[in-house]
Amino acid sequence: MEFTASQIAGILEGEVDGNPEIAVHKLSKIEEGEKGSLTFLANPKYTSYIYSTKASVTIVNKDFVPEQALDTTLIKVDDAYKSFSKLLEYYNQVKNNKVGIENPVFTSDSAVYGDGFYLGAFSYLGNNVVIGDNVKIYPNVYVGDNVTIADNVVVFAGSKIYSESVIGKNCVIHSGAIIGADGFGFTPNEKGEYDKVPQTGNVIIEDNVDVGAGTTIDRATLGSTILRRGVKLDNQIQIAHNVEIGEHTAIAAQTGVAGSTKIGKHCLIGGQVGIVGHIVIGDRVKIQAQSGIGRNVKDDEVIQGSPALNYGDYNKSYVHFKNLPKIINRINELEKRIDGGASN
């Protein structure tokens, strides 16, 4: 795809300073800019690169005044970073705006879909599937019976959406994600073996949720596993049965949340965090990476460690953890002096 500086300025409601007809067909960092590329300058630390960049077009703030001659056409906007992000979103929309059904695919006669639908090759739509407008399903995707997918959802290649799952508007499901697999439900019997507990619930994903590549969200034993509006999940996360995650909570890669735990709104959870089942984590909680959460957590706590401690307490204690060998040596030395004094 190719755009002129004038077209880009129109999208961003910006002003062109330079050649309005110069064209770009790719994006670049400002320090790595090449002819035909578009870049941006938002961080003052990178200002020096604007005088050496080979990028054909650069997005800058309106208050930017060059101190040297430039070889790049400028597009001046109110906020260069936000404008570049808007342009990336627009670029993705154009790039991903595929329409139509490729072959071979399987679609049940009872499956229905709206306008602007794209279904990639080797995909499967089960019975009574209902799909909204402008949904894009890439190749090798499985959509089970009775699944509902609302408008403007993108499901990338290789994802599996099990039966009864419900996905809201404007969601993105990245490659290899699995929605609605059975929860890890087993009970020991008198033989010392495990009997499977049927997982009869589903997964509900509300609007504007992103699910990272390779992430698994298990269906509920009864009821629903629920991701509320605006939740963002990184790659390779495990969400167990009957978990509920509150609005606009973000979770980094390799985190595992055990069954029936409730996580509040606007939480930030770092990578490789382990959270036990059947606990409640409050709103606006921040959990540092590699923490182990084995208890309920109140609103607004910042915690770290395994088992996790209050973040401030952890940092104070860590000073002593590092000095523990020295402290032990001092204690041993004091005991020797005390014992020596007692013998005299």
From TrEMBL:
<dbReference type="InterPro" id="IPR001451">
    <property type="entry name" value="Hexapep"/>
</dbReference>
<dbReference type="Pfam" id="PF04613">
    <property type="entry name" value="LpxD"/>
</dbReference>
<dbReference type="InterPro" id="IPR020573">
    <property type="entry name" value="UDP_GlcNAc_AcTrfase_non-rep"/>
</dbReference>
<keyword id="KW-0808">Transferase</keyword>
<keyword id="KW-0443">Lipid metabolism</keyword>
<dbReference type="Pfam" id="PF00132">
    <property type="entry name" value="Hexapep"/>
</dbReference>
<dbReference type="GO" id="GO:0016410">
    <property type="term" value="F:N-acyltransferase activity"/>
</dbReference>
<keyword id="KW-0441">Lipid A biosynthesis</keyword>
<comment type="subunit">
    <text>Homotrimer.</text>
</comment>
<dbReference type="GO" id="GO:0009245">
    <property type="term" value="P:lipid A biosynthetic process"/>
</dbReference>
<keyword id="KW-0012">Acyltransferase</keyword>
<dbReference type="GO" id="GO:0016020">
    <property type="term" value="C:membrane"/>
</dbReference>
<comment type="function">
    <text>Catalyzes the N-acylation of UDP-3-O-acylglucosamine using 3-hydroxyacyl-ACP as the acyl donor. Is involved in the biosynthesis of lipid A, a phosphorylated glycolipid that anchors the lipopolysaccharide to the outer membrane of the cell.</text>
</comment>
<feature type="active site" description="Proton acceptor">
    <location>
        <position position="241"/>
    </location>
</feature>
<keyword id="KW-0677">Repeat</keyword>
<keyword id="KW-0444">Lipid biosynthesis</keyword>
<comment type="pathway">
    <text>Bacterial outer membrane biogenesis; LPS lipid A biosynthesis.</text>
</comment>
<feature type="domain" description="UDP-3-O-[3-hydroxymyristoyl] glucosamine N-acyltransferase non-repeat region">
    <location>
        <begin position="22"/>
        <end position="89"/>
    </location>
</feature>
<dbReference type="InterPro" id="IPR007691">
    <property type="entry name" value="LpxD"/>
</dbReference>
<comment type="similarity">
    <text>Belongs to the transferase hexapeptide repeat family. LpxD subfamily.</text>
</comment>
<dbReference type="GO" id="GO:0103118">
    <property type="term" value="F:UDP-3-O-[(3R)-3-hydroxyacyl]-glucosamine N-acyltransferase activity"/>
</dbReference>
<dbReference type="InterPro" id="IPR011004">
    <property type="entry name" value="Trimer_LpxA-like_sf"/>
</dbReference>
<protein>
    <recommendedName>
        <fullName>UDP-3-O-acylglucosamine N-acyltransferase</fullName>
        <ecNumber>2.3.1.191</ecNumber>
    </recommendedName>
</protein>
<dbReference type="Pfam" id="PF14602">
    <property type="entry name" value="Hexapep_2"/>
</dbReference>
